Amino acid sequence: MRLTFSTEHQRLDGDVLERPFTLALGDEEPPVPGILWTPAGTGSPTAPEPTAPAPLILLGHPPLGLDRMYPRLVERARQAAADGFAAAALELPGSGGRPPLPGADRARAELRRAVEAGEPVADETVDALVLPLVDRAVPELRAALDALLALPGIGGPVGYSGGVISIGVRLAAVEPRLAAAVLFAGSFVPRAIAEEARRVSVPLHVLLQWDDEGNDRRASLDLFDAFGSKEKTLHANMGGHTGVPPYAAEAAARFFVRHLR
Amino acid sequence: MRLTFSTEHQRLDGDVLERPFTLALGDEEPPVPGILWTPAGTGSPTAPEPTAPAPLILLGHPPLGLDRMYPRLVERARQAAADGFAAAALELPGSGGRPPLPGADRARAELRRAVEAGEPVADETVDALVLPLVDRAVPELRAALDALLALPGIGGPVGYSGGVISIGVRLAAVEPRLAAAVLFAGSFVPRAIAEEARRVSVPLHVLLQWDDEGNDRRASLDLFDAFGSKEKTLHANMGGHTGVPPYAAEAAARFFVRHLR
């Protein structure tokens, strides 16, 4: 079995079951850590008894490590569970305890330098930082979907939410089981990914922090324009990169209720 | 009394009271027609008995005449009433049975010609179409506020919603009783109005139809950027000028619930 649950699990308020797992990728790399949250009524650790299989939301997150992102992930998982959805997060390539991605540190330092100097960020820097991450993360997320959707209690449709927008763009373009995505426009996007955006056709809900000083707002608006989806919504708010207002998160939750139930 | 209710009134579903009125402006012009909607529990035509005074939303609308806009206005008034708010709409200068505004027809024809020819619309055209309307409409709306807020059953806070965005911008900049505004970015904005936007400080919720072919989207985004408000949100959707999705209207309604209750 590719997906192995930890013996540790816990029940959160509201009867949400939280189960850490590891996903074997079938190569020489160690299995990838992840967490699965399931709402009440979709199974227990000892006797998974599906009532109605829950739709699944893949929770994207910045490449800062699952442990560090846990508080924000569990809050999002709680919202998903309250709406009747399962949620899962996977450790990103190069994050947590995983081996760093080649060239990533150098590219990140160069991006930071350029942003702080008020200079444009070179395409090569964005490509070097983002493309290796996307190239590895998307197949891993698809393998996670294979394993998670095979579990009793978890079915489609599938949503993707947040994290590194380029990962979400490619996943939405290539993964037919993805029915809807909430994307957070807060990171630089390689030109190749902006081109892939034209092939995205599923309903999209894009969050943009208008006064996010580390973001290229013009590029974010161009990316929104590029998405091929007939149904797409942009919600722009103030509050800086991490200051997404509560009502914005609620609107994103309602988007998933419209599209995943 | 400046505000005179018609003898005709009707109760809509949900016990919403609809009362046409006229507002005397104290000059040689005939009184201006308007409509007031009040939720259940805030008064009757024969014996206005305020329980808790309801907040008031001024419903802006395009300059097409109250009669023609009635179906859309009553739908918005119903939503307001369901949330416990009174709502009122006033006939715009130059619309309905009111004398046309000087230069408006010529400016409108020129704007249409330029848009259809794919040419930029000249500043002079936008100014000629919009500024006379704003100059007259804003004082009339403020006079309407004076009269409506004096009624038992109607109190503050006051919201403004929709219609010609330039009217909303100036009203938000000059009217201290205005607590929050939902603005629809679908019409050309004179440069002078875009400057006034910097003085707006109340919470704003801006709706933009991303694929509205008759609109200058870049100018709409620049206007959003110019607003001085610390709390402002932009919701952009697809669907053309008149295709605002239902969930977008619901989000605007929730904005008023957050700010007017």
Automatic annotation (TrEMBL), chains A, B:
GO terms for molecular function: hydrolase activity. SUPFAM superfamilies: alpha/beta-Hydrolases (SSF53474). It comes from the Bacteria. The keyword Hydrolase applies. Keywords: Hydrolase. This is Dienelactone hydrolase. The keyword Hydrolase applies.
